[in-house]
Amino acid sequence: MSREADRQQLPALMRRDVRLLGDLLGEVIREVGGQELLDDVERLRRAVIAARDRPPGDAADQAGDEIAALVAGWPLNRAELVAKAFTIYFHLTNLAEERHRVRTLRGQADLAQEKWGGEEGGGPRRESLAAAVAQFGAEPGQLYDLLARLRVQPVLTAHPTEARRRAVAAALRRMAALIAELDSARLPAELVEVRRRLREEIGLLWLTSPLRVKPIGPVDEVRTVMAVFDDTLFSLAPAFYRALDQACSAIRGSDPPGSVRPGTSGGPAPIVTACLRFGSWVGADRDGNPTVTAQVTRDAAAIHAEHALRGLENATTRIGRALTIHAGSAPPAADLTLALEAAETDHPELLAGIAARSPEEPYRTFLLFLAERLRATRLRQADLAYPDCAAYLADLRLVQDSLIAAGASRQAFGELQNLIWQAETFGFHAASLEVRQHSAVHERALREIDAGGELSAQSSEVLATLRAVGWIQGRFGVDACRRYVVSFTRSAADVAAVYELARHAVRSGPPPVLDVVPLFESGEDLRNATRVLDGMLELEPVAARMGQSEGGRGGGRELEVMLGYSDSAKELGPVSATLALYDAQERLASWAAARDVRLTLFHGRGGALGRGGGPAGRAVLAQAPGSVDGRLKVTEQGEVIFARYGNPVIAQRHLEQVTSAVLLASAPGAAASSRAQAQRFRPVADRMAVAALHRYRELVEAGGFAEWLARISPLEELSRMRIGSRPARRGGGSATHLTELRAIPWVFAWSQTRLNLPGWYGLGSGLAAVLAGPEGLAEVRQAYQGWPLLTVLFENAEMSLAKTDRRMAARHLALGGRDDLTAQVLAEYDLTRRLLLEVTRHERLLANRPVLSRAVTLRDPYVDALSYLQLRALAGLRTEPGSEADAGQRDQLERLLLLSVNGVAAGLQNTG
Predict the structure, then answer these.
(1) Which residues are designated catalytic?
(2) C-beta separation of 240 from 274 below 8 A
(3) Of 257, 261, 252, 293, whose CA–CA distance to 133 is shortest?
(4) pTM of the predicted structure, to 2 decimals
(5) What count of Cα atoms within 13 Å lies in the side-chain half-sphere of residue 762?
(6) Among the listed residues 686, 683, 680, the one whose alpha carbon sits nearest the alpha carbon of residue 766
């Protein structure tokens, strides 16, 4: 299919938006940079599109050489401006695609609602909460039991993968709102005004530096993430619960005894409870990041509380002002009357002022009083402040119970219920901070303490961090910061070390309440995980904590374990890492069932496909049998935070997909079905894994591989891009030590080379090993279609391959001067692509996702433009002394490189 045919197949409104934004960008470039700059941008654009039309071979190579010569002929400052133009184009195109997705989701929701409630029959939208409830296949009581213990916990993490500056992201959010107005604007004057404002914003974006002038600090990262809380998450939570409650409405008539609260007379009491909890590593993850200090973690907790309390205060004020129920219409219950009297006794002037504005409106008066208490809590005014969120929730329930008793159940379970859900979900802390540190750091600190004398700065910081945890708990509650993740946990002693250090840190009182979470990352550690947990159960602090659930309520024996997808994938490759993680989950689930432990598996999945990323809902359904059981905890990293939670419609859809998958994976019979699938298809997967691991290790263990990777990619320059506070390497090592390299820049670097190698390398050899046997193709196809684990593995590999480009990758690989490694990588690429298409029966990559496939195809030439600019910069920076890089131009070359990195990241829409 031709490029023009692909373009015409895209939705009309999406084409309209892309064309409009592109035209406005052209106008801005002409106004600010002049016609000559626009001509250069157009010259490069036409050249890369024309090169795409040439089949592989000498003609295509010649076209590539001509483009490289064109780019090399520009002065570096002109090359920078061209790179900036293509980068902004991708930011604008991403906005248009996001808007199309919102339109699609809203259209699907309207259609599903029409069919679900109309005469046509039909059914709910795929991967929706309603679909999950309809497919649950069990008695209502079993679904009620699952809903009562359902818990979905996204954990936001700050990693160096969000390449955009916060100022750029803010400008894009403003433009997203303007693009949405295009759909509702009807009068010519309205369209003209929207175009004017868009042109102004695009001009502002052009004049804004795309690169940070100074490095971003961890507190900056905290504030960036909290913008998502303000813009999306706080209002999203009650909308999500409403959707879940509506999905369960079909079973409302089968409520178990006691499920309807007294006084409702069967009123609209919600079935669901607040099942979402958010966590954050931002400002608390110090593993290899010396800029995250105890003070930073204290600051992070204070920022969290400020946002949570402001959100609750504003919502309470808004709802209170609207609750103008006269005392005669719905008399307040005795408990609410007593609470009002107590408030008047303790704060007569405040109550008098509120009551004067709300005469004979007790509900309004009391809620506005609660808003004042929240304000006092935020400002630390002790005489009026709440001691904790539980006291605030108790007051809200006083109002709700009084409304129920007075017959105003619609008001009791309306906006007031939304507020209760928000308080239950976010508390006074918005998201629970989770500290992370490397086990070796704890071991070193204990050795220094045992030896006596002065502690090193790092060991002193460990103790200061534990004191900071205690301070946070004392000020904001235990749930504000209670989990302590230990990277590279090798034994129960690594867990015990944290509790011992806590006792050393706090000598004047009880240590902080800690749930120490072991993190298993390497293949060996994943295999030994259950042995470590056996040792954990013997630790006195662990045994004491397991008798309590979150918030101190009795809830049985609970334990949390984290699995690292990133480092296991870097060590083993995508195929073997997938199976190793599945096996670890299966063993852990069996271990927990045998010991009556309610286990939560914390999935440290990256945003990129090479780090366990991809569609989250499908990944949940591919988990080992019994490993979900109503609970999912997963990291949301880097640019994924803004891609999934930046827009309320997309955020709700994401949470619905994940939660619906949790419900289905926890349904009766799901574990048995999953176990049968694994038993049938595991032999095929094992044969694949052996060959895939051999091929992967052959590459990454080749002599000089790490130095070669540093030459062909911007790996070493990433730390100077100032896109995150974390160093690219744990120990500050050099390019010769691949083991010290973090998985995030590992994936980021490969995406910039246009290879996305961590997402697929070795799979082709694995498939070839199986296909060589009798009936091999039929076996693999059955496994692909019949086992969700392999379905997800193959689909993610297909997505990775769709975002690769062999011709551009070959130019990157040529920079390394290693023909042997280049030939090895390209041969595996060709093999993987060919066999994956054969197994999936697809004529082209992503053939089963035509809109996405066409969008990727249409983007590719524009990404090529940025890749040619990046290759020019890399070639200059990699030359020997006395070359262009030494002639006072290294800073400019590095700036061009980082601009192109930014643009390629925007174009591919995934980095690390």
Answers:
(1) 159, 570
(2) no
(3) 252
(4) 0.91
(5) 29
(6) 686
